[in-house]
Amino acid sequence: MAARAETQEARHTQDGCPRRGAGSHFPRKRHAQDGGAPGRCPAGARRRRRMRVVELGRAAVTKMEAAGMVSVPWAGGRAPGQLCALRAGPGPGLQLDLDLQAGGGEVVAADTLGSYGSLARFRNISRIMKVNDNTVLGASGDYADFQYLKQVIDQMVIDEELLGDGHNYSPKAIHSWLTRAMYSRRCKMNPLWNTVVIGGFYNGESFLGYVDMLGVAYEAPTLATGYGAYLAQPLMREALEKKPILTKEEAQDLIERCMKILYYRDARSFNRFQIAVVTEKGVEVEEPRSVETNWDIAHLIRGFE
Predict the structure, then answer these.
(1) Of 9, 31, 257, 262, whose CB neighbour count within 10 A is largest?
(2) For the whole model, what pTM was predicted?
(3) Among 207, 90, 194, 187, residue whose Cα is nearest residue 152
(4) Which of these ranges, 30-44, 47-61, 273-287, has the smallest mean pLDDT?
């Protein structure tokens, strides 16, 4: 009896039976009742059959793929389980972008600095784009991604004009398309590292919208990106609370004041910036201008070391 038990235990081990240990194996009579061969574990046999079916299925699918009879859903992309190589982050960056609703239009401003990390690498970069006669776009973030967006939008505008139906893209249409484009790239784990603001004047109404790299979008009377969202946004909101409707000159003076404060406080900003004004007459993109600064009081600033 002892020898028989040892023999059955060895067979259980060879068959891959999960039931280990003395007294845990099935007796020969129980095997026969379960429809299995005497001395063979049915659990091990079932496991071997399943493994055999899986191997045959894999071989069949491989042959069908080679013959072109099966199209794999992920063909041309990454295989399941393969690591996804993402960009570590954006390249040369654009920092500041301010937008403000004025009476009968919008004022958009952005500095001309392209930073490579903490290096002020490019100092004459324009990142305000005239989309059409009623829409202007400004962006911060990765400059290469902004160039890609600019190329795509330019082609969209050309295709729309070629239709010759008398219609063109409104600011809301560009804003809506950007929300979809940004969210689509984010879902593909390859986002466009930009924060975009769209200003325009269409059908007697002014528009100011915001879209970030995740597709988050909203509209507001004042917008700012980068460090300007912390320093310039409160100043613009305070000015609009005191006077809800600003003239073009008042809006430009406020923008210039905000850009000066940002140049004082933000190490990644620049004292050269560009302003675009959108009214019912069209889009006017001005030449870059510089702000006058005075560093004589710098030694009096304390608490920011």
Answers:
(1) 262
(2) 0.69
(3) 194
(4) 30-44
CATH number at residue 125: 3.60.20.10
Residue 139, in any domain of the structure: yes
- For residue 45, how many other CB atoms are within 10 A of its CB? 17
Count of all residues that appear for the chain in the document: 305
Q: Could you list the beta-strand ranges (E) of the chain.
A: 93-94, 97-102, 105-111, 114-116, 119-122, 128-132, 135-142, 194-202, 205-211, 217-219, 222-225, 272-279, 282-285, 289-290
3-state secondary structure at position 235: helix
Across 92-96, 115-119, 152-156, 245-249, which has the greatest mean pLDDT?
A: 152-156
- Total domains in the fold of the chain: 1
Q: Report the distance separating Cα 96 and Cα 248, nearest Å.
A: 21
Q: Does residue 197 belong to any structural domain of this protein?
A: yes
Q: Does residue 199 lie in a domain region?
A: yes
Strand partners, 219: 209
Q: What is the pLDDT of residues 60-113, one digit of tens each?
A: 555 555 555 444 444 455 566 666 555 545 555 555 677 777 777 889 999 999
pLDDT digits (tens, 9 = 90+) for 15-36: 445 444 444 444 444 444 545 4
Q: What is the CA radius of gyration of the chain?
A: 33
The answer to whether 100 touches 106, Cβ cutoff 8 Å, is: yes
Instruction: Write 291-297 long-range contacts (CB < 8 A, 24+).
Output: 291/256, 291/259, 291/260, 291/263, 292/260, 293/260, 293/263, 293/264
In a domain, 148, yes or no: yes
- Going by the DSSP 8-state scheme, the letter that residue 298 receives in this structure is G
Alpha carbons 76 and 290: distance in angstroms, whole number = 50
